[in-house]
Recover the amino acids of this structure.
C-alpha cells in the first residue's frame, strides 16, 4: 500500500526538458520521489487505477524552478520571512529549490548556521533549501570565512550578500583559497565608492526626480576587476545580479577566454525599467537599481543568447514600514518567489523572452552550477516538477501573496502564465 | 680530526643561498657534517679547528634554536663566539645595515652569521665585510643551513635522498626553509611536492621543479618524507586562512592524513611547532615517525661542518 502511495502519474502533459531541448506531449510517472519513466503514450496500455493520476490537459510539465538568490529573515528577522513562509511562497511560484543568502542575523558565516538552515528547512519548508555561506565574517569585508568547512557542511555557494568586497587583495585571497574547494563565489559587482548613497540609476530621469544615483559604470568597473582576479586565481565566479548593458561585453570576453565566469539577473530587471519607480514608487526601489529600457532590452537579449546564465527572483522581503517612506529612506528590494515564473512567462507570452532560454536559466543551468541532481527531466532525477499554464491571465494582487512580506513592484499588473501544481520530491506541495 | 683538517674549502666564499653550492660542495658539507655527527656522541666534543677565530652571530630577528645551534657549533670548534641580538641593539636606534656592517668589519671577525627579516640582507652585508657570511634566514628568501641539516638528517636515516618522494606542506609563500629545501633536494635527486592552500603557495611555484597540490590526500600519495612548515598565527585569522580549525582540518598532519603517504613515511618540521595547527602531537612525538628532535641534533653537526669549510677559505673573490 505504501508503495502505491509513493507513486504519482501525470498524463497528457507538454513535457519540456530545457537541458535536452525535449518538448513533446506525453506522460510521466513518479516513484519514491524520483522520476521513474516518461514519454509519449507511456500509459497507452492503461494505468493501474490505484496510482493517483493528474490529467495535465496539455499544460507544460517541466523541472521545478531553482532560485539561486533568496533572502529570508530566519534566523533573526522572522517577521519578514521564515524558511516556512518562503517555502510556501516558493511552492506557489513553481520554485522547488532555493538558495538562501547569508545576510541573516546572525550571518551564515559558520558551519553551525549552515547546519541550522538545513535542519530548519527540513522541518518546516515544503521545498528544498540550500544555504549560501558568507564570504567574509559577519559580511564585514575584512576576514575570510571557513569556506572549506562550510562547503563540507553543505553550503552550495558563497556570497557576501549585498555588500561588495572593495578590498582587492582580500578578494584575490578569497578567490584563490576557494579554488582549492572548487567553491562557487557569487559577488555583487558594485564599486562601493562610486555608488555611495545612491538610490537610483544615474540618468536624466533620476536627475529630474532629484534622487542621488549611481552610474552603470560602477557595475562594469567591479565586474572588470573581478574577472581579472578570476583570471589570476582560477576561481569559479558568479556575477550576481547584473543590471546594465555595459557590463555585458566584459562578461562576454571572460566567457570567450574560457574563464569559469557566469552571471545572474533578477526577473525584476528583465521585466521592469527605471520608469517603474515613476512617482517615487518605493516598491520598485531595488539594489541594483532598475536601469534604462535599453539596459533591459540588452539583458533580455543576453538571456536569449546565453551570455547571462541564470535568472533569479532576488526575493528580498521587507515589511511595509520599510517601504512606506520617502524614496531615499525606503528599504531596497522586492519579494520575488511568487513572481519569478509568472513574470518570466509574461515576457515569453509577449514575445520578448524565449521559453526554453527562460526555463534553462531557472532549472538546469543553476542545477549544474550548484552541483544539484534536480533541474532535469531524466529517469532517476529527483521528482521536482511544476505544471504550468502558460496562458492563464491574472492580475497580481499583493493580498494573495503567501510570503510574510508583500513588497512587490508587480502589484496590480496583468500577468500571463502561472504554476498550477508544484511537486517537490514526489509530493504535491502546491495546487 | 686529522682527516677533517685536510679537507679543502668550498667553491664559494659565503653561504647565502643553496645556489652558491655546487654538487661537490654539497657532498663535502654533508660528508663532514656526518663526521661531526658521529663525533658528537663522544665524551669530549670539542676540537680547535677555529681556535683563535671570532664568530659573530648577528640576529636581527629573534631566534632560539638557530642562534644557539650556531653558537654551540662555533664553541665546539674552539671559536670565540659573540651573539649580537640586533633586535634590541643599535639597529633599533636607527643604524642602517651597511653602517652596522662597517662597524662589525672594524672588529675583524672571521665568520659572520646573519638572520634578517629582509630578503637579500645577508647578500648586501657580504659585499661590505671581509669575512665569510652565512645566511641564517633572510625574509622569505632562504635558510640554506636548515636545508643542509634537513638533507643530512634524511641521509643519515635513509641512506640516500636520490629518488625519494618528499612533500613540503603548509605556508610555502612565506617560507625560506621551503625555498632552500626545494633547491637542495632537487639537486640531490628527490621528487618534490608542495602542498598547501592556494593562498599560501606562490602562484608560479609549479615552475620550481616541483608538483603543486592543494589537497593532502592526493599530494601525500606515495610520499616517503613529509616536511611540515610552521604557520604564523597572524596568518590564520581570515587573511590567508580562515581559521586554525579549518587549517588543521584540511592541511594539519594527523594520523589519518599520514596514512595517505607511503608506509613508514617520516615526518620533519623545522620548528617551532604549532601543535594542533599544522601537526598533531601524537605524530610530532612518535620517535618512529618524527625526525624533529633528530633535526635539532643534526643541526649542530651540520653547522660545525659549514663553519669549518667556510673558514678554510674559498671562492673566486678571496
Amino acid at each position: 500500500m505504501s508503495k502505491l502511495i509513493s507513486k504519482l502519474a501525470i498524463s497528457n502533459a507538454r513535457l519540456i526538458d530545457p537541458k535536452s531541448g525535449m518538448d513533446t506531449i506525453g506522460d510521466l510517472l513518479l516513484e519514491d520521489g524520483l522520476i521513474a519513466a516518461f514519454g509519449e503514450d507511456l500509459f497507452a496500455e492503461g494505468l493501474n487505477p490505484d496510482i493517483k493520476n493528474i490529467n495535465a490537459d496539455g499544460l507544460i510539465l517541466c523541472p521545478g524552478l531553482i532560485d539561486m538568490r533568496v533572502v529570508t529573515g530566519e534566523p533573526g528577522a522572522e517577521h519578514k520571512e521564515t524558511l516556512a513562509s518562503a517555502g510556501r511562497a516558493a511552492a506557489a511560484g513553481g520554485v522547488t529549490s532555493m538558495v538562501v543568502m547569508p545576510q541573516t542575523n546572525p550571518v551564515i558565516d559558520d558551519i553551525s548556521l549552515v547546519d541550522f538552515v538545513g535542519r530548519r528547512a527540513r522541518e518546516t519548508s515544503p521545498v528544498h533549501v540550500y544555504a549560501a555561506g558568507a564570504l567574509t565574517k559577519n559580511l564585514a569585508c575584512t576576514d575570510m570565512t571557513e569556506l572549506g568547512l562550510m562547503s563540507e557542511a553543505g553550503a552550495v555557494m558563497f556570497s557576501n550578500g549585498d555588500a561588495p568586497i572593495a578590498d582587492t587583495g582580500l578578494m584575490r585571497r578569497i578567490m584563490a583559497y576557494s579554488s582549492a574547494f572548487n567553491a562557487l563565489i557569487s559577488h555583487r559587482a558594485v564599486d562601493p565608492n562610486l555608488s555611495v548613497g545612491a538610490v537610483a540609476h544615474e540618468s536624466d530621469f533620476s536627475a529630474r526626480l532629484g534622487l542621488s544615483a549611481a552610474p552603470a559604470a560602477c557595475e562594469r568597473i567591479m565586474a572588470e576587476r573581478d574577472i581579472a582576479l578570476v583570471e589570476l586565481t582560477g576561481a569559479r565566479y558568479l556575477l550576481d545580479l547584473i543590471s546594465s548593458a555595459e557590463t555585458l561585453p566584459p562578461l562576454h570576453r571572460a566567457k570567450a577566454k574560457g574563464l569559469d565566469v557566469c552571471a545572474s539577473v533578477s526577473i525584476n530587471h528583465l521585466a521592469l525599467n527605471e520608469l517603474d519607480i515613476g512617482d517615487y514608487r518605493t516598491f520598485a526601489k531595488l539594489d541594483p537599481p532598475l536601469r534604462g529600457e535599453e539596459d533591459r532590452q540588452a539583458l533580455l537579449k543576453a538571456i536569449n543568447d546565453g551570455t547571462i546564465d541564470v535568472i533569479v527572483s532576488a526575493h528580498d522581503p521587507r515589511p511595509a514600514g520599510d517601504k512606506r517612506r520617502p524614496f531615499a529612506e525606503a528599504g531596497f528590494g522586492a519579494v520575488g518567489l511568487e513572481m519569478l515564473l509568472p513574470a518570466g512567462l509574461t515576457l515569453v507570452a509577449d514575445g520578448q523572452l524565449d521559453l526554453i532560454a527562460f526555463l534553462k536559466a531557472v532549472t538546469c543551468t543553476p542545477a549544474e552550477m550548484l552541483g544539484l541532481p534536480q533541474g532535469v527531466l531524466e529517469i532517476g532525477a529527483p521528482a521536482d516538477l511544476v505544471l504550468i499554464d502558460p496562458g492563464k491571465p491574472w492580475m497580481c494582487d499583493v493580498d494573495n501573496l503567501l510570503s510574510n512580506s508583500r513588497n512587490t513592484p508587480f502589484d496590480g499588473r496583468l500577468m500571463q502564465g502561472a504554476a498550477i501544481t508544484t511537486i517537490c520530491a514526489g509530493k504535491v506541495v502546491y495546487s | 680530526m686529522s682527516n677533517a683538517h685536510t679537507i679543502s674549502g668550498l667553491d664559494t666564499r659565503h653561504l647565502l643561498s643553496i645556489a652558491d653550492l655546487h654538487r661537490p660542495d654539497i657532498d663535502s658539507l654533508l660528508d663532514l657534517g656526518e663526521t661531526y655527527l658521529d663525533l658528537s656522541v663522544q665524551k669530549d666534543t670539542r676540537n680547535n679547528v677555529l681556535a683563535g677565530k671570532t664568530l659573530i652571530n648577528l640576529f636581527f630577528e629573534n631566534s632560539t634554536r638557530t642562534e644557539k645551534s650556531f653558537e654551540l657549533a662555533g664553541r665546539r670548534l674552539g671559536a670565540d663566539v659573540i651573539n649580537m641580538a640586533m633586535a634590541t641593539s643599535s639597529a633599533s636606534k636607527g643604524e642602517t645595515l651597511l653602517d652596522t656592517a662597517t662597524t662589525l668589519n672594524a672588529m675583524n671577525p672571521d665568520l659572520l652569521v646573519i638572520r634578517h627579516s629582509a630578503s637579500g640582507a645577508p647578500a648586501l652585508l657580504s659585499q661590505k665585510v671581509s669575512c665569510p657570511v652565512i645566511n641564517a634566514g633572510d625574509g622569505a628568501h632562504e635558510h640554506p643551513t636548515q636545508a643542509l641539516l634537513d638533507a643530512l638528517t634524511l641521509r643519515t636515516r635513509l641512506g640516500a635522498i636520490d629518488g625519494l618522494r618528499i612533500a613540503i606542506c603548509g605556508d610555502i609563500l612565506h617560507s625560506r626553509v621551503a625555498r632552500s629545501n626545494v633547491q637542495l633536494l632537487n639537486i640531490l635527486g628527490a621528487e618534490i611536492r608542495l602542498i598547501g592552500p592556494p593562498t599560501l603557495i606562490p602562484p608560479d611555484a609549479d615552475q620550481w621543479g616541483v608538483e603543486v597540490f592543494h589537497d593532502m590526500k592526493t599530494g601525500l600519495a606515495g610520499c616517503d618524507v613529509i616536511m611540515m612548515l610552521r604557520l604564523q598565527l597572524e596568518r590564520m585569522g581570515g587573511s590567508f586562512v580562515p581559521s586554525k580549525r579549518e587549517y588543521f582540518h584540511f592541511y594539519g598532519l594527523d594520523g589519518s592524513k599520514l596514512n595517505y603517504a607511503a608506509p613508514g613515511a617520516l615526518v620533519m618540521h623545522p620548528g617551532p611547532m604549532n601543535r594542533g595547527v599544522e601537526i598533531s602531537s601524537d605524530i610530532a612525538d612518535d620517535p618512529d615517525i618524527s625526525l624533529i628532535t633528530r633535526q635539532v641534533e643534526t643541526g649542530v653537526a651540520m653547522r660545525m661542518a659549514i663553519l669549518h669549510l667556510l673558514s678554510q677559505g674559498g671562492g673566486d673573490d678571496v
Remarks:
- The mean pLDDT of chain A is 95.
- Chain A touches chain B at residues 136-137, 142-149, 170, 173, 176-177, 179-180, 232-233 (CB under 8 Å).
